[in-house]
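Dear colleague,

Thank you for sharing your sequence with our group. We've completed the structure prediction you requested, and as agreed, I am returning the results in plain text so they can be pasted directly into your records. Please verify that the sequence below matches your submission; if there's any discrepancy, let me know and we will rerun it promptly.
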Amino acid sequence: MLKNIREEHNKIALDSDWLEIERFTLVSLLSRMISHVLNGGTLLVCTEDRLEWFEKFVIQNINRPITARPLVPIFGVSEILPKIQSQDPALVLDMLSLSYKDFAFWYIGRAQGDVAKLALSKDDSFLWLLDDSMQKALNLSTKEKIKIEYKLIQLYKIFEEALFGAMFGNIILE
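Please find the predicted structure tokens below.
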């Protein structure tokens, strides 16, 4: 997986020192995410409001019909629950547990807000946190010279390549 990270870095040719620095955290997090999906789990993508475009990007690309690969159980929370703010988090979690077998959140954003609280309330969530620091999360800075949008797209491409690489036996998860 480290090889894929470096190859993706070279393809995009951006200043990706941040990616090299975070590679061990990233590999650990991606391995857990991919194992979760390969073992029959569902990922529910959710973001803070200003990054809703990224949730849509993931959902539109992960199961796009032009690729000859299996469909994966990754869904957008905004499609399921347009506005979480007015809902009791326990009721939302109960409903999601009934609807999705072994689901986990894939949250991208700051650690504040209703959606973040919901994602943080589930222990096995996969977190890409902005301008915050938490163990078992990929902590990203929006204050560096490379824009967060580029980082997110680069990370998604690495995730997608690693996920399907693991599915087809090209990548071994440790």
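Summary note from our side: The chain has one domain: 2-166.

Kind regards,
the structure core
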